[in-house]
Amino acid sequence: MVGLGFIPMNFFKLAFLACFIFSCLSLGTPSQACDPNDLLALKEFAGNLTNGSIIATWSNDSICCEWEGIKCDHGGNGSSTTRVSILNLSGKGLRGSISRSLGSLDELKLLDLSCNPSGW
Fold first, then answer.
1. Residue 85 covered by a domain
2. Which DSSP letter does residue 34 get?
3. Which residue in 1, 4, 5, 88 is a FRET match for 29, CA 20 to 30 A apart?
4. Which pTM was predicted?
């Protein structure tokens, strides 16, 4: 069995530095606010729903990209907002009408409302 005295001290310094840098990077950047039009469209859509587990999890927070079933991409062009790119609410027990407001999500690439009781 080899003792710790065999490993050079520089190795420990480098390992510590690597762990420190990795932990700083993993903290990430603060969440960016959703595009105001995307936020409005999602709230209008949610307002037309009844039942479903999703309604209670969506908050009044302007960071809709952290809401369940939503994924976003950065707005680009130096924008401080993010845009909704995926809305996946499959199997969430949603009922209601599909709001025209979803048409305002002009960066939406995937919409999945399958396996909900309303027959979407």
1. yes
2. B
3. 88
4. 0.67
Determine the Cα–Cα distance for residues 66 and 89; give it in Å rounded to an integer: 14
Dihedral of CA 29/35/40/42: which sign?
A: negative
Rounded Cα–Cα distance for residues 50 and 47 (Å)? 8
Query: How many structural domains is the chain composed of?
Result: 1
Length of the chain: 120
Tokens of 34: 């959703």
Rounded average pLDDT per 10-residue block, the chain, 120 residues: 59 62 47 85 89 74 88 75 93 89 96 82
CB-based burial of residue 40 (10 Å sphere; 0-12 exposed, 13-18 middle, 19+ buried)?
A: middle
Per-residue pLDDT, 113:
92
If we measure between CA atoms, which residue out of 96, 94, 83, 95 comes closest to residue 36?
83
Q: What is the CATH number of the domain that holds 104?
A: 3.80.10.10
